[in-house]
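Example 9 (inverse folding). The structure is encoded as follows.
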């Protein structure tokens, strides 16, 4: 389930070769997998990026034939992630926070980070998936479902900003202490206590319009300069 890799390769392909069939196959393969597994996938972040890959495919090819078949699986996936939301309004109890990057931060690797380092990034991916789902259902004429996901996205973005914004740093933290208990395993390491401010969380907050627009330039300046 390396959908995040396939998504990046598909974007390069649209510009270099223009062939859509491998991308279409990957979208369908992941669709069938998620349907079989009731929305569960080993790579939590990659399952959310699948929704973006689907809508990128439609944008670049104009092929809407996949959208009706994908719509119920998108809802299945987002319903599973809704169950991972905690009292904070952020994702607190997914089976893992994979995958962010092949980067070592202290005693942790962002390939499979602890909650304190992965929560912001995964929640940002969730916000994006909600936005893409709202667009998907709007295209299909299901205005009620589209509005449902739009409202959930707005709510989650507000909680992201409330919980993670650091006024002193003028950046978003990667996660918060506390929340529901987690089952620690090799893919879910324990928190090591450090508060971090990664390029990943902050760049995604800008990319997905979680950060207020008037703050985005300064955030990205800090991302590139610090």
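The amino acid assigned to each position is listed next.
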């Amino acid at each position: 389930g390396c959908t995040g890799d396939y998504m990046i390769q598909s974007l390069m392909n649209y510009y270099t070769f223009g062939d859509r069939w491998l991308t279409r196959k990957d979208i369908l393969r992941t669709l069938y997998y998620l349907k079989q597994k009731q929305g569960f996938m080993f790579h939590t972040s990659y399952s959310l990026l699948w929704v973006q890959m689907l809508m990128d495919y439609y944008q670049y090819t104009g092929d809407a034939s996949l959208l009706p078949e994908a719509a119920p699986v998108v809802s299945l996936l987002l319903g599973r992630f809704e169950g991972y939301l905690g009292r904070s309004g952020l994702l607190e109890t997914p089976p893992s926070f994979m995958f962010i990057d092949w980067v070592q931060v202290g005693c942790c690797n962002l390939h499979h980070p602890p909650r304190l380092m992965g929560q912001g990034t995964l929640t940002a991916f969730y916000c994006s998936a909600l936005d893409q789902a709202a667009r998907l259902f709007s295209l299909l004429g299901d205005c009620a479902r589209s509005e449902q996901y739009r409202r959930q996205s707005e709510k989650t973005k507000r909680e992201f900003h409330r919980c993670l914004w650091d006024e002193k740093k003028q950046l978003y933290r990667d996660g918060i202490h506390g929340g529901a208990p987690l089952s620690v395993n090799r893919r879910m390491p324990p928190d090591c206590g450090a508060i971090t401010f990664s390029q990943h969380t902050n760049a995604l907050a800008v990319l997905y319009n979680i950060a207020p627009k008037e703050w985005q330039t300064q955030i990205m300046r800090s991302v590139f300069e610090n």
